[in-house]
Amino acid sequence: MHADPATINSAAAAFVAGLITSLHCLGMCGPLACSLVPVRGDRADAQIVSTLYHLARLAAYAIIGALVGALGRLPLTWLGAGALRYAPWVLVVFFIAVAFRLDRFLPRLPLLGKAYLTVHTWGRARSPLEAAAALGLVTPLLPCGPLYLLFGVAMTTGSALRGVEFMLAFGLGTVPLLWLLQANFHWLRSKLPPIALARLQTGLALATALVIAWRLRGTLGPAAAASGCGCCH
Question: pLDDT digits over 180-202, tens only?
């Protein structure tokens, strides 16, 4: 039984993408997220700071999801049903790119990275709560290849509402490991060295790409083209 392509490009798939991508986040933006957590003796509660950071980050993802989803609606309307059936394969491409770190070859946007560092520096002179909220909101500005790719996948939803749903699910998928890292930074870094994280990410990303590709196999071939695969019904 083949899956409806519309179900592949879903919140569930985005959540899995978040879980897998969070392995990359542990090594890249994890230290930045952990710099927000108050040390002993600070008045701010570490759990409240972490919660505010993640809520602000999810809000930022939702805003980006709405924008790119709405933006993607126009090109999707120009494509016929025959072409639309291939849209969910973008998610397969995403997982393969993450597995083999092809995102390293994506052009970086230095202005966005500088804006993030400016806010990070500004936050050092503010309260932990203010800094957490500000850094959460500007997290999409990080020069992160997998995140750029996910924004592209969110465009294929062709809807502001579905774009919000997709990016929120992705963000929720990244929360568990990042929150665990914030609570146990040094222990996790010692138990999960970068090479182990990279290998685990590669294995999981490839396995997910294969599963999705297998479920999408019904979108290929003359029969699928004739039926339109039901993605527009």
Answer: 877 776 566 666 777 877 888 88
Sign of the Cα torsion 64, 70, 73, 74 reads: negative
pTM greater than 0.90: no
CB neighbour class for 137 (10 Å; exposed up to 12, middle 13-18, buried from 19):
middle
CB atoms within 10 A of CB 54: 21
25 and 98 in contact (C-beta within 8 Å)? no
In contact, 34 and 137? CB cutoff 8 Å: no
Residues 6+ apart with CB under 8 A from 183: 37, 46, 50
Cα separation, 166 vs 163, in Å, equals 5
User: pLDDT tens for residues 5-57?
Assistant: 445 567 888 898 888 888 877 766 666 666 666 554 456 677 888 889 999 99
Q: Quick check: 72 and 79 in contact, CB under 8 A?
A: no
